[in-house]
Amino acid sequence: MTRRASIIGGNGYTGGELLRLLLNHPDIEVGEVTSRSLADRPIHHAHPNLRGCLNQSFMSPDEVTPCDVLFLCMPHGEASTTIDRWQSIAPLVVDLSADFRLRSADDYQSWYGVPHPSPDRLGTAVYGLPEVTRPQLAQARLISGVGCNATAMTLALLPLARAGLIERVIADIKVGSSEGGAAVNAGSHHPVRSRAVRTYSPSGHRHCAEVLQSLGEMDLDCTVSAIEMVRGVLCTAHVQPKERVDHKTLWRLYREAYHNEPFVRIVADRAGPNRLPDPRVVVGSNFADVGFTIDERSGRIIALAAIDNLVKGAAGTAIQAMNIALGLDETAGLTSPGLHPA
Amino acid sequence: MTRRASIIGGNGYTGGELLRLLLNHPDIEVGEVTSRSLADRPIHHAHPNLRGCLNQSFMSPDEVTPCDVLFLCMPHGEASTTIDRWQSIAPLVVDLSADFRLRSADDYQSWYGVPHPSPDRLGTAVYGLPEVTRPQLAQARLISGVGCNATAMTLALLPLARAGLIERVIADIKVGSSEGGAAVNAGSHHPVRSRAVRTYSPSGHRHCAEVLQSLGEMDLDCTVSAIEMVRGVLCTAHVQPKERVDHKTLWRLYREAYHNEPFVRIVADRAGPNRLPDPRVVVGSNFADVGFTIDERSGRIIALAAIDNLVKGAAGTAIQAMNIALGLDETAGLTSPGLHPA
Amino acid sequence: MTRRASIIGGNGYTGGELLRLLLNHPDIEVGEVTSRSLADRPIHHAHPNLRGCLNQSFMSPDEVTPCDVLFLCMPHGEASTTIDRWQSIAPLVVDLSADFRLRSADDYQSWYGVPHPSPDRLGTAVYGLPEVTRPQLAQARLISGVGCNATAMTLALLPLARAGLIERVIADIKVGSSEGGAAVNAGSHHPVRSRAVRTYSPSGHRHCAEVLQSLGEMDLDCTVSAIEMVRGVLCTAHVQPKERVDHKTLWRLYREAYHNEPFVRIVADRAGPNRLPDPRVVVGSNFADVGFTIDERSGRIIALAAIDNLVKGAAGTAIQAMNIALGLDETAGLTSPGLHPA
Amino acid sequence: MTRRASIIGGNGYTGGELLRLLLNHPDIEVGEVTSRSLADRPIHHAHPNLRGCLNQSFMSPDEVTPCDVLFLCMPHGEASTTIDRWQSIAPLVVDLSADFRLRSADDYQSWYGVPHPSPDRLGTAVYGLPEVTRPQLAQARLISGVGCNATAMTLALLPLARAGLIERVIADIKVGSSEGGAAVNAGSHHPVRSRAVRTYSPSGHRHCAEVLQSLGEMDLDCTVSAIEMVRGVLCTAHVQPKERVDHKTLWRLYREAYHNEPFVRIVADRAGPNRLPDPRVVVGSNFADVGFTIDERSGRIIALAAIDNLVKGAAGTAIQAMNIALGLDETAGLTSPGLHPA
Fold first, then answer.
1. Which of B274, B326, D34, D224 gives 20 to 30 Å between its CA and that of B334?
2. Which CATH architecture has domain B3-123?
């Protein structure tokens, strides 16, 4: 039985990525795609890669009709004030903004600096990272998408956190320019963004809140730098462990955590140019490559995770979560590997 | 009925790309993948994007067993001296080298500078560009892959050539670094290749021979430059027409030529950043974006075609040709759009 | 004797480049630098590379005081309506916009689509390309800067034009993103501009007018594509000669034209990765690398020129012209070679 | 009085960079440039940016004649076995390899894994980082060049180390491809190196030894990643301070350390795209941009330094040290700012 999926705010990068993936999903038919600014314009106006793949045009969000799944790709702060309307249209809503990621209204206020507009809904939303919340997703009616940097941090650290090994973490995160979205700004101007190494968030990034919610409280901070790439996140987490562990133990912990995960690959080889995770290898795919190594002098663990921010860090994980909630094969529509070289 | 496809010389870029695409082909099972230098090493050693997607290792080409389709990804000049062996193993052989692209042994000698090693086979091979040779492919037992630059030139010019409009063509071709293959050389060293604009073939490129064979004799030359990208070919053909034509006529000619082609999209808008073909839009996909414009002063036609050299310019078109020869849906395994942005 | 040079509109890329070069000019002292939008802000706000090199801030253009040389870096169309004021302030004015490039008001109207605002001044301005107008520059009071694409085309073709060899030219021009200036636009957004190959001017580019003015009327057109680089222009001119010439003759013609030129280097080697001009080799320098090759089949000449659009295509040539007009060593302040690798 | 400087092993990237800078040095004349593999070939064969700037060819190192300064750009391990010969040729030798960076033979053995070939010389060499060893450089006869990553770490941390503030440091270092030198290898192949984020040294990088020698023993480790750029190093040092400090104190410490340093700029603004150091801003220049910020939650100090690895991280600092040893203006030949945009 094919389900019909529509997208609110489909003209941005996550909307385009949802479309790219859903077009090849065996159980999904693409329904309506809205954009207030591009209403009545062909979809390939915003997503030139989809030219010829979709006959429809963008429609106004005011005209959207009922469907089986509704993806919300709106600016942060909008979904939470209009959520009633969307839930009245579809039995399953997946919101890709940051509005429903945190369960606690206090945490939201603390990290986002404003009160949450609909705190009563926070309890009903399920954080859509299957590696953390798979059981709850099966029953979800409202799923929150994930933060891309949060996803990389969470997947790098999850096996260590479960083992209670983490004393302290500093994560250095490198991201591409698509993380900033489709809107132009002075910092995204090609002549100055090209080959920039811009430390745009030296500390206190909001995505930390999601990691702490998923893994439990810990001494965690991160520094985020924009580098020359379009897609991709690499989290390099410098972990001070509570006790010294060896390489074999780490292999065991990561294997235990991930051996049943369809989209997490452990990359911790002894040698070779691809012995540790590199986002270029997963671009276009839903894979998260996770790896680790140990500084033999100090015992510091270097835990890494590489994802495509628009796929495993946004649209891909949203579809994976949808698959679970709809009772479909969890990997449906998501099996394409990344491009190499690219 | 699933067919079994094996690959000889699967450690290079076209081999990796065949694997990436065949893994999601609904009617194909990946059989053996050979590499003499990497025998017994896991396939992800050469293709890190496929880690976890394939359990097998490379095997020696000496041990390959019968299969339904055999793809040959060997250096130019090798397939033609060993073709008997491969045809004894599989009823359908697709050679991605340049060995069987030209029908005429004289042309081969003229463009490649050496006599063809097995001229008797030239008549039996079918040039595998469906837009040109679809009828013959249905019966083919030996299919030749296409040259990537040739494909871009042929698809840009085909509607004009069929209409007998071409007086003279100079094609300026821009290519990415993956066109040079997986072997390291002084010119591919990142510090000197990065942002290079290297005119590596100012004139007389061999791929012209394929274009002339497909479209008929004409006054054609091309200049090929390597620019900063990994995948992609843009052919910008400067066409002096035999008579002046208008934009509407060009639309008609291109539409007639391509309206039934599943992988050719006409991109000739009046405005917008994507109004003409750009290889970045087709990266990872089997699409060829073809467009045109006219210099109103001189009447010169600028005909463009953008492809991913590893997909529509190599592995994708090879699979498309295989689909036709096997009687499968021509688009099977090839429906993923490109990545945007990327 | 040190001369004082001021800059009107110094917050853009040509203004920044003038500053970078003038700071190391032995005979020039940097005077005032104006910017209406950044008045009173430190200059490194716009030009972070100059932090610590200049103590002054931007000032309002209304407050600029007399100086020896005034560079105008204003949007096209502004210098020509305010030129009286600037000439009253400085005995030598160098305008880097397009306003005074064409001598003929008719040509201006034809290529720019509007009447020239001060046609009487057109006769007094000298086009500031020393390789073409050196004698006139010595007496100039008003110098026009050059178009970057025009400079590349002119220098590639000048020896052939002087020899009366050109039957017809199509120039394929590849440019970097800095050519678009410092203002953000939808097309300059890094995620979509990165690795783009965008044919933004398929024909009829305005810079052709400058080439025709410098070299004489000819059958000339150009196609301009934006590629992945920040600085650089490569002109690849496909020249149909009036008669067939050999390589030796071309060497003679180019040597005759350029052997006394301090900033033109002939790059036409027989082999090697750098045998033909490549803009990456001249980035940051005032050199123009000029080369050529012949298609032996057709006799077509491929003439190339590579420049840094912000230096030889703008600020560097402006300073070179100023040096001549001031009677200084023509190369003063301009002797730094490009960066390699970079 | 002009001094004559020659270069042994001048065909690599540091050799090319020395030449680029020395050509515009007011007090230096370029003498001989040797290369065993390229002997008798023109220098622009290796350094295409210098075409036309130097008339000479590479010569064999066996034929080098006496000069005032000799720069050694040989593979690690070679200078230390041949140092007698070079010191007999020139009263001042500057070795850009790692051979004489560490004063202690034990440290050398510990970090490089082999005994030092000429331990008796270690005491006479002066580590050539003027910000640390300026007084000793004035008398030096043998100067050791610096490690590029070491330079970035040292300059980021020096004010904190002098203040005794450092409890523990983890430095995340991002580097460009030129750091690997001019020799081709599998990892430097453009299709796989482009946009790579490759953690090539997760811990225990040798350059740490230089930092500890310069700043004193501390709990220090670093992780080095190769990213998409050609030139540039950004060190992001995560510093756990012994006591909590505020922003104003950091400003004071950095200003005290660097206000007299001609090539260190403090970049620690409150806002703006360039508020913290970014290597793209210093490319081509001898500047080190140093900055800092504080994580208000944890008190962690994020200390950053950005350099061009080939200039401030190699050839530029070597010339700066030479200037001091020769009694010249310390900034001679090094005053060009970086390129922006580029």
1. B274
2. 3-Layer(aba) Sandwich (3.40)
